[in-house]
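Weekly sync, protein design subgroup
Attendees: M.S., D.O., the rotation student, P.L. (late)

Item 1: inverse folding check
M.S. brought a backbone from last month's batch and wanted to see whether the design step gives back something sensible before we order anything. D.O. pointed out we never logged the input encoding, so this time it goes straight into the notes. Structure tokens as presented (75 positions):
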């Protein structure tokens, strides 16, 4: 299987990942984080951030290290 797409939505964000293992051009493997329109106090309008899979893995590593370093995280 050469194409992969996955999406996860929360009340405030939609996370998407698109991979094409056979494509060799830049931008064929991307991760997108988009804000969803909301009437709540944290609404910032609609915007999105797109990054390469390599950049997303760097972000994941940073977040994993940061969460491990904190003593406790209440979610």
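Designed sequence read out in the meeting:
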């Amino acid at each position: 299987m050469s194409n992969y797409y996955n999406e996860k939505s929360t009340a405030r964000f939609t996370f998407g990942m698109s991979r094409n293992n056979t494509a060799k051009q830049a931008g064929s493997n991307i991760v997108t984080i988009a804000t969803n329109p909301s009437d709540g106090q944290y609404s910032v309008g609609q915007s999105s951030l797109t990054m390469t899979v390599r950049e997303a893995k760097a972000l994941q590593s940073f977040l994993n290290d940061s969460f491990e370093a904190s003593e406790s995280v209440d979610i």
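Discussion: Strands lie at 3-9, 13-20, 30-35, 48-52. The CA atoms of residues 34 and 60 lie 17 Å apart.
Action: P.L. to compare against the previous round before Friday.
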